[in-house]
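User: Sequence in, structure out. Go.
Assistant: Echoing your sequence, followed by the structure tokens.
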Amino acid sequence: WDVFATSRSADSEAIINTYDGLLEYDTEGTLKPALALGNGEFSEPDPDTGYVTVTYKLREGVKWVDSQGREVADLTADDFVAGMQHMLDAGGGLEYLVENIIVNALEYNKGDVTDFAEVGVKATDDNTVVYTLCQPTSYFITMLGYNVFAPMSRTYFESKGGVFGKDDYKAAVDAGTMKYGQTVNDIAYCGPYLVSNFTSENTIVFT
């Protein structure tokens, strides 16, 4: 149930019901803001680096809840930073989607950059997330529906034994102390549904 640690469509098709992204396609295939207030503000390319920034303002008042619907945290811009780092740490198989798109995502993946602060996703305040792209990327907003851009509650993740950093994450998994995403009761929800019943290979009930 950890959307960042899987590349299987069967997993993602279930988990996507438990969270919202910045932008999402509606039933008619039109891309519309979900957690974001608009389609983002794109900067002009930096004359020295060619980098482009894309800024999103978030809807206020969105809450993370547990599987019982109890509030566990406010959703903030930092949750998109946490989600991106955990996705790269977990190596679920889709991290290539942001390589050479997000600044230093490839380098972090390869271990050439170890400080995630150098990767091009930042929370400039509680309601503003900024992506820095390697070059102008006209299709970037269409990528925001991919699970690699999902938010994740940093505090809830840590409360379930989650840690950041590739080596530390692997050590936590190997030690069995990382409980995040193991069951429907070990994720925080910010989407339209809670999983009210799950029986492996049999039943998933979304409420």
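User: And one key feature?
Assistant: The CA atoms of residues 3 and 15 lie 6 Å apart.
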